[in-house]
Amino acid sequence: MPKPPPPSANQTPSPALQRAALALQMGQFAEAERIAAEVLKASRTDVGAASLLARALLAQNRAAEAVAPLERAVRRIEDPGLETLLGAALGGAGRGSEAIELLRRTTARRPPFLPAFQELAGQLSKAGRGDEAIAVIESALGFAPDVVALQLDLARLLLQRGERGPARAILEMARAAAPDHPDILTVLARVLLLDGDYAAAADLYRRVLAQRPGDVATRADFSACLLEMGERETGEANLRQAMRGRPQMIGRATYALAQSSHGRFFLRPSALAKFLSEPG
Question: Are 156 and 174 in contact (CB under 8 A)?
């Protein structure tokens, strides 16, 4: 699920917080954390600093550390953005039931704050409560039926339950509204791949890779399509490109090669690793 935006604020952020926000946007999470922590140390009531600090910590997979500053901020101000961040932090810290309880209260407020619905659905899905997660996103779509992010969330949740037909219908509708949206194309291509429509899936993956050439997961799925279409040389070359310098991709590459009707099977992982490291 998408990360929630920062909480709303009526005043312009200080120069220090603007630098922290820029660092966060640039992926400089430690720097964003440092600046926000300094601002918060000087002013314990600065909810903007608490929000940025928490987001920097969450980006570094340090959810437990983000809970305390967010709890202090939530006690000072009622803000759905802060509450949604706190829900994400609680969930990331292994306190899922508390996160769900908080997020249910936030989603009950009006006007609706859509990221809270998305975070709640994500927490429910992680807890194995897929039906409830779908109901939450459907209720959010009742408020904002044309929001692509919500349509994508619903399609992904349906895919997790194996309901490819309904997911595909939603994605086709979303694609009509945003034909070049890479996330829509990626998820729709995944549905087509699972349905065995390899040529159509490959075409969508090509479009995504034109926008995101470094998206290795998409490249691995694209390779699977090529292998199924009998384009072994090109498919294997793309797998090698996806694997290059990324040992964590070995499982995905193994699956793509072994499952394809035109793939390969290796008895030893070392042989597979050697094959994928070969120039091609």
Answer: no
pTM above 0.85, yes or no: no
The answer to whether 164 touches 194, Cβ cutoff 8 Å, is: yes
Question: CB under 8 Å to 45, separation ≥6 — which residues?
Answer: 76
Query: For 111, which DSSP code?
Result: S
Per-residue pLDDT reduced to its tens digit, 117-129: 999 999 999 999 9
Q: What is the DSSP letter of 109?
A: S
**Cα–Cα dist 140/151, whole Å:** 10
Asked if residues 24 and 32 have their Cβ atoms less than 8 Å apart, the reply is yes
Percent helix / strand / coil, the chain, rounded to 5: 75, 0, 25
Q: In the chain, how long is the greatest CA-to-CA distance?
A: 63
The DSSP letter of residue 147 is: -
155: helix, strand or coil = helix
Q: What CA–CA distances, in Å, run from 159 to 163, 234, 261?
A: 5, 28, 23
- What is the distance between the alpha carbons of residues 173 and 211, in angstroms, rounded to a whole number? 21
Q: Are 139 and 126 in contact (CB under 8 A)?
A: no
What is the overall mean pLDDT for the chain? 86
Domains in the chain (CATH in brackets) are: 1-145 (1.25.40.10)
Which residue type does 47 have? V
